[in-house]
Amino acid sequence: MKQNLSNNIHFKRFDWLLFLLLSFILTIGVFFVWSASSEIFLFKQIVWIVTGLTLFFTLLYFDYLSFADYAYIIYAFVLFLLLLLLVLGDSVKGSQRWFSIGAFSVQPSEFMKIAVVLALARFLKYKKYALGLFDIGISLLLTGIPMLLIMKQPDLGTALIMVPILLSILYTAGIRLSHLFLLVGTGMAISPFVWMFVLKSYQKSRIVGFLWPERTADWGAGYHRLQSLIAVGSGGLFGTGWGNGIQNQMKFLPERHTDFIFAVIAEEWGFLRACLFLLLYVAFIACGIGVAKDTRDSFGRLVVVGIVTMFATQVIVNIGMTLGVAPIVGVTLPFVSYGGSSMITSFVALSLIFNIKMRPMIDLASRRFSEAKS
Amino acid sequence: MYPLRFRIIILVFILLFFGIIVRLFQLQVIESEIYQGISHRRRIATTLLETTRGSIFDRNGKVLAVDQPTFDVSVLFKNLLHCYLNRTEQPYPFTSLKIHEDEKKQCRECRENQDVWLERLSQLLGIPQAELLNNTRQIIEKVERLKQSVERRAGKKVRIKEEIDYHPVVADIPWEKVIQIETRQADFPGIRIVPRLKRVYPEQKLASHILGYIGKLTMEEWREYREAWNNYVLASTGAETLSLLYDGYMENDNLGRDGIEAQYEEELRGMRGKRFEEITYKSSQMERVIVERPSISGNDVYLTLDSRIQAYAEKSLGTHAGSVIVVDPRTGEILAMANNPRFNPNTISEDFNRLINNPSKPFLNRAIQGALPPGSIFKAITAIAPLSSGVLNTQTAFECHGYVRHRNVTLRCASRNGHGLISLEDAITYSCNVFFYEVAKAFGRDIFYDYARLFGIGERTGIDLPHERSGNMPQVTATIPAMNIAIGQGRLLTTPLQMVRVYAAIANGGTLVQPHVLSKVINSQGEVIRRFEATYNQKLPIHPSILNSIQASLRDVVTRGTARGKGLHLYKAAGKTGTAETGRKGDYHSWFVGYAPYDNPRYCFIVLVEHTPKSSAEIACPIAAELLSYLFPEAHRAS
To answer: What pLDDT score does B22 carry?
Structure first.
């Protein structure tokens, strides 16, 4: 990064409430990953969390405006990684989502979400009062190109998360309501073409299976959905108790430590505590939007809104999936699902929120100004 | 600037979360009973069911390969372990066995029954105890290795299914022993008879190269197939529901490794069924079968092979290394394809290592994999090429002095004293090398290349057998190599199948047929679901008059030429001899290729004997005559 403005940081403005909420979510997550898998996964998950936290605190020392300076470069680099992946990526379950570097696998599509947020915020930060159709068009391209590449992998879930991110950033940036409706309408109009030319047949069958369960021949998704519903449903009001879920422990629930972790929580904790867990996320997201509202720098505000939308969409889609109200598309539950790429991405994204909260715009600008003079 | 918009965003998210909580309430409070019921009472486990591999028949319906039930004797693992620990002294490589050692000390008397099986089985089956113990050792090592890898992955001690299971100790026991064990269960504690399907080739070594053999999937192959199957299921659309209900390969499954078994694996394999079982939650006991999808047995494969001709061809070839092919020149159906040496597919698992290291290469299907110089039998192509391109007519004659000189190189004819002035027709009949040297010299180097390619030399014939070789049709730029190729020597390499196809085309009036061994595929209901259809049967651009004169020459080979007096004329055969040099003195490949009867060809055949000191007339022609005596028994009797 260009400058290290560590002395400019306001530790008094560290968002303790948000951090406390995060700690609760992380702790619960660790316990349920343990319940759903084994000590090995527990240990690895803790390693990921520690790595993520270290990265989180390290990134706080860099001034977030540097991210604005490098936004397009980061965007181009991750886009390049995605392209590279299409050419020589590992084949895992017939899709190409991972780079293998030694024992680690890196999933560029995860990082693309942040890169898109940064690029969009950078592009729209000067457009406070006059967001024209041209600006909307460029924003669409910035989002659409990586979306297509990610769909091609195929990773429908991650690609679709870009849509709410784009909408919420445009909305915050001041898009006219008529333009917003035009955009949504156009999106609906072109969706048949996406259906015909972009989606793979099994993705289609998953969506068909979600919309019309009786028509589907996709036993995979149907099985996931049913087992997940049984898990959630048998949790009841009070749950079976931690480590006692039948669906979980008898290993009938597939992918229970990654995408379906919420089903384990719902089965073993029951309705009341699952609601409490959900409220943690609601508070977390509300706090995030609060940070955006208090930020006076428009780049920072757009970044925070984009990231909070990313978290919120992932939580809603992931949980909706386990409850059978969203198609099964492979989206992780932030800070809870087992997995390195997801955990690291979430922490990097979170550090941006904290960074923006801890660096009031006015101080930052004056600091930069004085440095430029000297 | 837009404070309202932040509120609206928050509101949207809160509404969505509220929706989730409502759904959660519906599932966990209102409908909870339903799901709890499913979760406690009805859980479904699936087991894969055996399937029968399709049989292989010859053209007359004679069975060449079939799945037959056979019986293995299996013993409970703890009995095996007990015996092993008590009877063997050698140190054991696996440390986890220490637990078992401790167990052994604890309770001696309650285990007294556990090594009865060893003596009883040894007595009943007449197998020495040492051999049984050796099998036991292998089983225990395998299970322990598996257990360790499972424990390493799980990170804790686990009891695996194999530890409480029965393991086969003796395979393929006779029926009367099965009865003895089954009727006196009490005398054989911990012993169980397990039926199994075994691939049997009732004709033993007959046509072993064509039938091929089957072999167990290796761990890696199994993983690969499983992965491929999963991807296929993931990517399949709703239209292909059938595949979703069945399963791919299972661990320890067999797979066709060579010949028809490999080529038509997809047809023969069949599909494993599935049994869906209800299991009670508490005891993990199977309650009852809910639904069973029966297996679909593999399809039966009928070959064009005639096993009687095949047997006679193999007999005619005798102990010579080489091959004999009989083909219907009109359709390309392979009636016999004999190779020597052969292997016995019934005992392949025991013999494999010995066979694969055998220098005479018994696994080689010489008919399609042996690429050798064809020698004089190539001259038919060398004659057709200049005739068709118009640079030569049947009357053109060259003078043969027994040798030809070209730039200080002397090339010899088979006849030391020369054939004198000789025309094309006689050049084939008497196999005059000099004539074809002169053709190559006079009419350019590349004159044969295009025609040889037209006849499929240097390309696979596309026969439906795996691992066919293409041979080599070199494109030469110098005169001397071209002269060599003109008489079927030099860098030219052909397989017997390629050459027999060339002569089939000459015999049938110029159609290059696609050789094949599949006749039809029949499903388990007896319906024909597929007949072999040639993807190409190519009419060659050769004038009928040219073919006629070549045919006349080939007929003369038998009546007055190089194959005279070998008995071939009795069967109205026409053909061509060939003795290819290998570069070593007194070591030749002896060929005879031909068809019969010459006026209405029903059979086209080729005989190849590799690495023999004798000429074609001495060794290949008698084999051909013997083969024909079987194909035309009336003519044989009349003589």
So the answer is: 93
- In angstroms, the CA A145 to CA A164 distance is 16
Q: How far is B64 from chain A, CA to nearest CA, in Å?
A: 39
- The candidate with the shortest Cα–Cα distance to B522, out of B530, B514, B533, is B530
Chain A hits for B16, Cβ within 8 Å: 312, 316
Contact B104, B82 (CB under 8 A): yes
Check pLDDT > 60 for residue B109: no
How far is the alpha carbon of A192 from chain B, nearest alpha carbon, in Å? 18
Q: Enter the DSSP assignment of B514.
A: -
Asked if the Cβ–Cβ distance from A232 to B230 is below 8 Å, we say no
3-class DSSP assignment, residue B278? strand
Q: Give the Cα separation of A201 and B235 in Å (integer).
A: 6
If you measure CA to CA, which chain A residue comes closest to B3? A293
Q: Are A38 and B156 inside 8 Å of each other by CB? A: yes
Cβ–Cβ contacts within 10 Å for residue A101, how many? Answer: 8
Can you give the pLDDT at residue B284?
A: 46
The DSSP line for A32-100 is: HHHHHS-HHHHHHHHHHHHHHHHHHHHHHTS-THHHHHHHHHHHHHHHHHHHHHHHH---BTTB---EE
Query: Bigger pLDDT: A73 or B396?
Result: A73
Query: What is the mean predicted confidence (pLDDT) over B278-286?
Result: 50
Which residues, listed in sequence order, are joined to residue B604 by a DSSP beta bridge? Answer: B327, B595
- From the list B104, B74, B75, the residue with the least C-alpha distance to B88 is B104
Closest approach of B160 to chain A, Cα-based (Å): 15
Residue pair B207/B310 in contact (Cβ under 8 Å)? The answer is yes
User: What number is the average pLDDT over the span A212-235?
Assistant: 65
> Are residues A275 and B21, on separate chains, in Cβ contact within 8 Å?
yes
A230 contacts in chain B (CB < 8 Å) = 35, 38-39
Question: Which residues of B are less than 8 Å from A246 in CB distance?
Answer: 39-40, 281
Per-residue pLDDT tens digits for A165-200:
999 999 988 888 888 888 888 888 888 777 777 676
**A233/B32 Cβ within 8 A:** yes
* Range in A251-265, B183-197, B416-430 with the lowest mean pLDDT: A251-265
Distance CA B531, CA B571 (A): 32
pLDDT at A92: 45
Average pLDDT, chain B: 84
Residue B238 neighbours by CB under 8 Å, 6+ apart: A205, A208, A215, A216, A217, A218
In the predicted structure, residue A115 carries a pLDDT above the cut 80: yes
* CB-CB neighbors (< 8 A) of B240 in chain A: 217
Q: Which residues contact B433 (CB under 8 A, 6 or more apart)?
A: B376, B411, B412, B413, B414, B487
Give the sheet arrangement for strand B274-279, strand by strand: B43-48, B274-279, B286-293
Q: From CA B53, how far away is CA A100, in angstroms rounded?
A: 40
B35 contacts A234? CB cut-off 8 A: yes
